[in-house]
Amino acid sequence: MAETLSPTVLTLKDIAREAGVSLATVDRVLHNRPGVRPDTVRRVKDAIARNSFQPHVAAAELARGRARRFAFVMPSGSNPFMQQIEAYLGEMAGWLSARRLNVEMIATDVFEPAALAASLEALSGDYDGVAVVALDHPSVRAAINDLVDAGAKVVTLVSDVPSSRRHHYVGIDNIAAGRTAGALVGRLVGQRSGKVAIIAGSQGLRDHAERIFGFNQVMATEFPDLSVLPVLEGRDEDDRSEQLLARLLGKHGDIVGLYNVGAGTQGVAKALNDKAQNAKASGAAGRDKQVVFVGHDVTALTRRLLLQGVMDAAISQNPGHEARAAVRVLLALARGEPILSEQEKIRIDIVMRDNLP
Amino acid sequence: MAETLSPTVLTLKDIAREAGVSLATVDRVLHNRPGVRPDTVRRVKDAIARNSFQPHVAAAELARGRARRFAFVMPSGSNPFMQQIEAYLGEMAGWLSARRLNVEMIATDVFEPAALAASLEALSGDYDGVAVVALDHPSVRAAINDLVDAGAKVVTLVSDVPSSRRHHYVGIDNIAAGRTAGALVGRLVGQRSGKVAIIAGSQGLRDHAERIFGFNQVMATEFPDLSVLPVLEGRDEDDRSEQLLARLLGKHGDIVGLYNVGAGTQGVAKALNDKAQNAKASGAAGRDKQVVFVGHDVTALTRRLLLQGVMDAAISQNPGHEARAAVRVLLALARGEPILSEQEKIRIDIVMRDNLP
DNA sequence: CATCAAATGAGTTGCGTACCTCAAAACACC
DNA sequence: GGTGTTTTGAGGTACGCAACTCATTTGATG
Asked: Which part of the chain is the HTH lacI-type domain (chains A, B) (predicted)?
């Protein structure tokens, strides 16, 4: 009826006795320090495995003495998503200090490869771990690899650099996110046929490009009645996005769906609202006439738009989860603990009005 | 440019010096032990606050010596959702033992108030924390309160007993979950009008009742073209669910939506498939003729149904997250640490084919 | 002022590990 | 067998706190 999930754990001393060696030797094996004969190493490792020994996290942490330093390298500027990550890290202040973890935020222009690489290089040697919202560029890749070589644990956040030797990526699969957006637009449009617009920050950004790719994939294979218009590039700016979209809506009267890949949501919403006003003025109305609008991220603005019914769904990667996962992964890496991959995996959340967090 | 989120933290000794008292007195204040004048208490607390002192978790954990014991009281039987929770706890085994946490699973008939209450009473005094999938019943409530009085930290899991003095609830808002299901069915049905069926385990279960309530709320206010049929009670059994649903589908030819509130998914899917076969045989076909099917939880079965297109969306509460959150909350409560409420909040996930985890 | 209880100081021990030193032992090589 | 090198043992200290004991001081009360 009762089943225990955690076997009793021995201490270092017990292992030393088991293996017939001294504490010092076990310690050497445990930390891969030199000066132990291969044969002895095996004996010790056997004893460790046999007893499924695990160092007591608390004792280890206490014994090492010094605090750990982590750096979060994030975009400068007023990106609300990044601000949320910062805010959640702030909320963790107590948790962090109780574990003697120092987390520092470093703002830099992540869209400028040279600047980002320089920021990263400057960290070398001073930090136990670095989380970075990275641009995928050769010099950035090199900077990441240098950090790794210097002994730091490196985690990419939100946007990955798969070709680097970073230890972990904390973020979503953007192709799947785009597919999800596509499926939502397609299904919510229903039986209507017509055109679908896409507005992104820039197709040069890896995450945006991947989302568009996934979106088009689903559109092409599953919703043949919908035709996708060429992508508008709004540079994540409100004004520009509004103008581009307004013009497009004017040109094509039969737009039934809209996918906003990045930011600039304020402008997108404005253009959509203006169109709705015109439609109402000219007599057409009702749910059937509305444009299905799917975007990304839950912010104060998108929350309002969802509640008003202007926006139909937001694809979201929980920024709080990302912040905490990045810290936990860095900590686990630094401690040499395994990562709870299931826990640290970032999910693609579909947020509609009724499951707003 | 760089901003530190974690101020340097002092030790107990520093606080004692600051407050002009001895270590022993700080210790007394810190642990609410008697024998300190109110005035002195304030002086010490001021010093603690002034320096934002926090005991080093590792040191505290190490000093207390003994391991902590947690119990998970879960339904007996083969509920896949509960099995997943168990599996995720198993995955955490290393994490748990590195922290000297003992987690025991205790199976009991949670639908039998007396049995559940007895199981809970039996734990009194032996455990530092208890997580329980609870039935809301007076005797269960009393048992929970007794546990709390005995000094254990109690967390309700999945299903809450709000009237008890449990310390925390780890689970979703089931009314909001029902609303979300309603919005999905309504939106995915599109312009069609017709009837919507609901099949639940039992309306006596608190979570099921709440979901149905939320679902009907949305249906009534937002989708007047859809009429909701009386709730079928399938007792979460496959056969019974299939029979009930098959009969209903036969009786009403214009069913366009279906909400499965609990389990019994296998049977529900079978009944739906049979209907689809018949429809195809009689010439009608295409997406328009399909019944929109929304259910709960991502299991091996629902995953398959989503991929096949039989099921359109699953409302899910991440069982892995629930398991880990329950452990973390119990641990934080036992340590007297604050709970990261944002982290431990369970979200209502909408899972469709393209964002399957 | 004496008496007693309450408040406080001072100190000890132990938790399990990391990290260090120094000496002893084992081994390899000529 | 002697030399030099590698491997191992033994032991110590420190980490920051919990939990405890016992002596001492303070304050109130009669």
From this structure: 10-64
Fold match flag (B12-55 vs B174-316): no
B12-55: CATH class: mainly alpha
Q: B198: closest CA among B167, B229, B165?
A: B229
Extract long-range pairs of A81-86: CB within 8 Å, 24+ residues apart.
A81/A158, A81/A263, A81/A297, A81/A299, A81/A319, A82/A133, A84/A299, A84/A319, A84/A320, A85/A157, A85/A319, A85/A320, A85/A322, A85/A323, A86/A323
**Does B94 reach chain A within 8 Å, measured CB to CB?**
yes
Name the nearest CA neighbour of B323 among B151, B79, B81, B94: B81
- According to CATH, the superfamily of the domain at A174-316 is Response regulator (3.40.50.2300)
A170-184, A206-220, B284-298 — which is least confidently predicted? B284-298
CA distance A92 to chain B (A): 7
Residue B108's DSSP bridge partners are B75
Asked if the C-beta of B318 comes within 8 angstroms of chain A's C-beta atoms, the answer is yes
Q: Do A6 and B101 touch (CB under 8 A)?
A: yes
- How many of the other CB atoms lie within 10 Å of CB of B287? 12
- Cβ within 8 Å, pair B5-A62: no
CA nearest A349 in B: which residue?
B349
Q: Which of B306, B254, B261 shows the shortest CA–CA distance to B275?
A: B254
Q: Which CATH superfamily is domain B67-171+319-347 in?
A: Response regulator (3.40.50.2300)
Distance from CA of A239 to the nearest CA of B (A): 28
What CATH fold (topology level) applies to the domain A66-171+320-346?
Rossmann fold (3.40.50)
d(CA B56, C1' D14) / Å: 15
Q: Is A324 on the interface with B (CB under 8 A)?
A: yes
Domain spans of chain B, in order of start: 12-55, 67-171+319-347, 174-316
pLDDT, tens only, B195-238:
999 999 888 778 899 999 999 999 999 999 999 999 999 888 89
pLDDT in tens, A240-270: 999 999 999 999 989 999 999 988 899 999 9
CA-based torsion, A170, A172, A174, A175: positive or negative? positive
C-alpha to C-alpha distances, A187 to A262, A312, A318, nearest whole angstrom: 21, 11, 24
Helix B174-189 to helix A174-189 angle, to the nearest 10 degrees? Answer: 60
Given an 8 Å threshold on Cβ–Cβ distance, is A176 in contact with B90? no
Contacts of B333 (CB under 8 A, 6+ apart): B129, B153, B155, B167, B168, B339
